[in-house]
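Contributing: when you submit paired examples, paste them exactly as shown. First protein:
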Amino acid sequence: MEIIDLRSDTVTKPSNEMRQNMIDAEVGDDVYGEDPTVNSLQEEIAKIFGKEASLFVPSGTMSNQISLKILTDQGDEIITDADAHIFYYETAAPSIISNIQIRPIKSNNGMPDLNLIEDAIRPNIYYFPKTKVISIENTHNRFGGKIIDINYIKEIKNLANKYNIFTHLDGARIWNAHIATGIKLDEYAKYFDTISVCLSKGLGAPIGSLIISNRKNIEKAIKWRKILGGGMRQVGIIAAAGIYAIRNNIKLLIEDHKNAKIFANLISKLQSIHIDINSVETNIVIFKIASNINTDLFISKCKQKGLLLSSIGKNTIRVVFHLDINNEMMYKSYDIIKEIIEEINK
């Protein structure tokens, strides 16, 4: 039975061409800074984003957390959306690694009201933590791949400058925002002091993220990567996959976006499913099933027919389109969901 895995774009597998690049990679010891393929990847990423330097790390959580570490001091506070990955999914890492706290601001779209953010910035009084960073996630995972508006980003930067605060971009899926809007990556990047980008989601590499910033920050990041166990040796084998991904797979993201929008339109017509099709902007589709349908049972029935889905809350399903899902598989996914909904509603 064919398995269609829509749980996440992290499930992508390297293509044969990517694997060949990995086999052919020239390698060295990256802890010594001597892996030529890693160095090439870091230089290419920094150039694409218009920054001085970047650093290859194993995971997106590590790239986010090292970024926060180098921007803050113990006892500081950062502001972010209440559904942001760094607050919701990174196991309280800021409190453990950086000894800082997060001030989450609720929003309906990943863009908290600017007045609420400004109100949350702490006065310079000794019994308050110091507000050090405003962090944005683009695209926003829990809001269905929502693209953060570039004008909002500019306003955040102006606000940060007003209060002498740093800005961080969790850009795990910034590639999707770039493809959907046509806004260049270096345009997004110039409004942030640190940026985290991921290679192992929509771009299809097996592992890896990068921290992008100025040289001084990256020098600090190298130390913290080592402390956190992220120092790697002949890792050019993996970096080669990243080079292949950014040169060949960014342009392919448009197909994921198309499949997501077609799929959203199809399921919107099904009984017992509620979806705001206008909220589907990139490769993620979030929909709700009727309250009389058990979410675990629904997911289990889909799995029995070869379709893997994930729940992100009560009666809420997330599906993510990616490189390994073609147009035919998208339509097959709809057929499975339609069949199960009709079966349950009999």
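Second protein:
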Amino acid sequence: MPVADSPIILASVVCYLAVCAVIGVWAMRRTHTISDFLMAGQSLPGYVVVIAAMSSTMSGFGFVGGPGLVFDSGASSWWMVFVVTLGAAQSWTLAGKRLRLVSESREILTLPDAVAARYGGRAPRLMMGLAVLLGVLGYLGTQVVAIAWVLIAVFGVSQPVAMTIGLAVLAFYSIAGGILAGVYTDLFQGVLMVIAALAVFYYALESGGGMAQISKTLWEMDPEFIGPWGTRGAVTALGWYLLFGLGAVGQPHTITKLMMLRDIRDLRWGAFQMGAAYSVLALLWMSIGLAMRALVLQGKQPPLENPDLAAPTFLLGHTPELLAGIVFAGLLAAIMSTADSFLNIGAAAIVRDIPTALRGAPLPNELFWTRVVTGVILVASALFALYMESLVALLGTFGWGTFAAAIVPSVAIGLNWKRATAAACTASIGASIFLNFALELASRHGVYTLPNGLPVGAVSLTVSLAIFVGVSLATPKPEIPEDVRAAMEV
């Protein structure tokens, strides 16, 4: 792949890394308690939460993995990206209001805290903590690989060196600043990338000769690519439709941000604002992948060694240097801030949620150990990503599916359905964890692969929903605490 040799691009990235360091130091000085580290002290204005939630949903998954998936699979990706726009917005209405209301009467710092408040007992908290931790390893691995591709493109270093640099910057940024560093970096890069996405969309169309010429080239030379299901077929496309439409409601890096709102009234327009902003960012996801595929078929671009190179190769070869520098800086910002969110969620599971479920209290000196565990999770996720050796988007799909199957039934449905029981919550999460990892490892080692490209996450989400509803109806009606009941009835 081409490597940036432009002072403008290098200066943009170096300046961004300096901004990250400043934000990390600033956030560290404002982080005094575990609530500050995990929930930003519930002090964020609505516009910050909207942009932060939108940015963390796109992240390295969309900015690097998205164009790579379009380049590799064509229209199959449409069933993922377009439906996320609606699903991400829906999270504000299904989960956001009730989570925020429950957090008014109790100390709710994590999703397992919310699950414990809704269902009572230790088992639901323990299972949710385990699900969050395992999902973090998969999705965080996406961010680590994505940041490596960006640094390879900018500095021309090897993948191990790029991953080492990325891990070092992430470690300082996340350990020092907690979630405050993440959300304000999201604010910076979200505004930047909405503008940049429109510019990239223009240059993507221009490089391929316009949308009509791109479509004509793809249809004439690879009709399956631009057909309704893309190269992965109908089963995969419809599986992604389910997983990313409904599953978007179960992404902890998004819905936990809704508990950070300073004023619950900001939820009113948040869903619309987030959906609109994500739609603009999706232009970058789709246009780069389509343009690069057309350029390769037209002979104007050498074939790519790896589909994940689509975004950096396009930016370096087909956009002005200043725009490329801005987008690379924005890519790093998106990856860093989303990784920070996952590190906070995963560390909280180890230090707060799982110990509370097992021994009735979090580890002592909670803020200190959360920072220590953050570094450990970062290294573990990098090793997991190297083991999986998947495309960035497919690695992200695994993490997304793990979260969706565990969280959609227990949180999105459980906070809206009074008949849901603790036994159903525990059983559905346990089944989702087992299915996700058993099927993924079986496919990885050639033992068993789902037929027709059926996504693992779609299967585990469907089974988890069925178990949740079935067990709830088969077990006694639960006693819901008065404050939680009041939040559910608003």
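If you have annotations for the second protein, write them as plain sentences, like these:
The chain is about 80% helix and 0% strand.
Residues 159-207 form the longest helix (49 residues).
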